Fold this protein.
Amino acid sequence: MNSQPFLINKFPPGSFVELDDLLSGRKISLVCQDGMTSVDTVAIGLATPFFIHKSFNPVMLGSIANYVEANSLGEAYNRLLSILVRQDLNDEANDPLFIIRALNFIHKAMPVELTLPLINDAIKSSKDQQQMLNDLRLCIIEYIKSTHENHVN
């Protein structure tokens, strides 16, 4: 019998968690309904749940409201949404992962003054993170397909 403790963390569904990614960096993911898995995108058909394993050093961020309040980001949140709408980035304005990643970028830049260039950098960073995670997902899918095709019975 395996005496090793259960290595999967459980978090409130719908909350956000920051954890190590497969490229030796950190990422923010959305906790799924089971509380033990998270997804890197809210795009239907692209979301692949991954276990929130303790080896990924997960850190609970909570909901967007919790994160904004805990980090005094109320003004940043309002300005970010305003700029997204003004730039006709409505999909991004409605994507909670996009929003919390941009807010996390702004939070890490603090106490730098909240300027338009900083918010634009946060928007770019959030877009770049999602693209990197989408590319990684495609690499994993291609790898799985290739190993399946090369499997000898």
